[in-house]
Amino acid sequence: MWGKFSCYLTFGQLLVIACAAAPASNDHGIHSADHHKHLHHAKEEPHPSHEGAHQDCHLLSPHNADFAFSLYRKLNALTDSKGKNIFFSPVSISMALSLLALGAKEQTHSEIYRVLEYSNLQPAQVNEGYEHLLHMLNHSRDAFQLEMGTSLAIRQRFKPLDKFLQDAQHYYQSEAFTADFSKPDVAAQEINKYIAKKTHDMITDLVKDVDKDAVMMLISYLFFRGKWEEPFEERDTHKDDFHVDKNTKVRVDMMWSDRFYEYYVDRANHATVLMLPYKGNASMMILLPDEGKMQEVEGLLSKEQIKHWHDSLLRDKFPVSMPKFSISATYSLADTLKEMGMVSAFSETADLSGISEIDKLKVSKVEHKAVLKVDERGSKAAAATTVEILLETAVLPRLRIDLNRPFLLLIVEDSTKTILFMGKITDPTAA
């Protein structure tokens, strides 16, 4: 139960982070005249209105929510997940795969979009949605800090198409840097150092190894730090039991507070909903199933159900106890994404010609790690996703020439390139 409970702790946070307000119309036009001013103003300039940005951002949120719940069900069904914590950042994964889709075409592209629940969106809508999402969210304050972005680690002498690099930078704020992929251990260290810097040292070891044929690694990262709107008092924290299951309990540091909270008790669906707001525009939504009803509540997870619970919230004063904890989870997502329908990107039929028209490329690995720390003051969370891209080298058979049938020959004078003799050998035994 603890593993699943911990996953629920993040859903409210991540759905809010993914701009989960009421979605806007699907109508999508070209950039407005002040598009650049809205999205690319200087830091010292006043922050302009973002009405259009909100619309593009909200266009993605219901699709990202569908992907989040679909991926959760897949991860929850893994044998390795039984009895363990589940924690991941769906928006980090969605962003990394959307960046990959910039360079994908035909079936490879359509499969990525289908898995991400983007099938009814145009690439321009997705890409501009992330452009706006990144712009809207990358604003840190004293009480609320959110940093997210993408990067491209590129092998020396590998030259991606200029359009791919330009679009990655424009829409996904991608920084490009070279990594020494000829030395896999060195490349892993370089990429891990970069991810550690971007996640404030919360994720330091995501990349365990790098394939010797890798030419590029796509990276997405996310760092979140929020302070509770009403902190828990440390003096009220005490040791208490946490019941993992009917037969297992563990001792934890249990935080406690007695104040006004937003909540909803959904008796029909065996769940209690609790909102813990952060200072700034984020909250943690907690879903606590009734005893023995975890699977039933999991089966309800959808953007419609989350909205229903949110719209049903009441406010009252009552005590809340909550454990302090620090968890992390790491996933190799290739097999899971294949099961969800993203197949060709990992195969010899991959069409990543939007990255390189010369080299035949395919995806080899998609790795993801997420970390969450919760205490009396608030929460810190970080996530990173890497997509490793290989240069697909065909295995050529060892050269073998058997002159066991008729053949032609020429005797040539090299300096003048003069053919001195020419013939056809049909029967070597004939006189």
Care to describe what's here?
This protein has 431 residues and is an alpha+beta fold. The protein has a domain at 2-227 and 326-391: Antithrombin, subunit I, domain 2 (Antithrombin, Chain I, domain 2), CATH 3.30.497.10. 31% of the residues lie in helices and 31% in strands. The chain is built from eleven helices and 13 strands. It has helices spanning 2-17, 35-39, 51-77, 90-101, 106-115, 123-137, 162-172, 184-198, 294-300, 303-311, 334-340; strands at residues 144-155, 175-179, 214-227, 238-245, 248-266, 271-277, 283-289, 314-323, 325-332, 361-374, 378-391, 407-413, 418-425. The strands form three sheets. Strands 2-1-3-11-10-9 form a six-stranded mixed β-sheet. Strands 4, 5, 6, 7 and 8 form a five-stranded antiparallel β-sheet that branches. A two-stranded antiparallel ribbon has the order 12-13. Strand 4 (238-245) and strand 5 (248-266) form a beta hairpin. Helix 3 packs across helix 6. The longest helix has 27 residues, at 51-77. Residues 1-38, 41-53 and 394-398 have low confidence and may be disordered.
